[in-house]
Amino acid sequence: MIGEAVRGPAFYITASIGLILTAKEWNILSFNLPERKRQTEKFWAHEFGFIGASLLWGLHIGLGFFTRITYSGFWLLAAIALASGDPFFGAALMSAYWLGRVLSVWVAPLLLKPGASHVEL
Predict the structure, then answer these.
(1) Cα separation, 35 vs 65, whole angstroms
(2) R_g over Cα of the chain
(3) How far is the C-alpha of 4 from the C-alpha of 74, rounded, in Å?
(4) Are 45 and 53 in contact (CB under 8 A)?
(5) d(CA 121, CA 4)
(6) CA 41, CA 45: separation in Å to the nearest integer?
(7) Angle at 59 between CA 94 and CA 51, to 5 degrees
(8) Can you give the pLDDT at residue 79?
(9) pLDDT tens for the 121 residues of the chain, in order
């Protein structure tokens, strides 16, 4: 855990980051978010086969730090996890974020009627 002397400033810095990122999302401020301009490592398909590469690609993109992030919420969650100073809280926070993103992908096929196309979804 972060000591009490650091927790107060970390809270205010994180809140300031949140306000700045909110202003960016509302188009009050305009700046580029830090991101890598690529999605995955293409050579993994040749190195590990398509099944292994699919797993690696999912993990790589799912982490968020190694791909394109076009919205500010991810960076606020990363700042909160860092400011908390608790690795278990940070892991739980980022896991909840990841689960929220993948649930739509996992649940969507269950919502399709038999013989229906993805357009109907």
Answers:
(1) 7
(2) 18
(3) 26
(4) yes
(5) 50
(6) 8
(7) 155
(8) 92
(9) 555 556 678 889 999 999 999 999 999 999 888 877 666 777 888 888 888 888 888 777 777 777 777 788 889 999 999 998 889 999 999 889 888 877 877 787 777 767 666 665 5
Distance CA 98, CA 75 (A): 13
Residue corresponding to tokens 């980022």: 94
Tokens describing residue 88? 């278990």
**b (16+ CB within 10 A) / e for 87-109:** eeebeebbeebeeeeeeeeeeee
Which tokens sit at 36? 């890598």
In single-letter form, the type of residue at position 25 comes to E
Per DSSP, the chain holds a count of helices (H) and strands (E) of 4, 0
Q: How far apart are CA 99 and CA 81, in angstroms?
A: 16
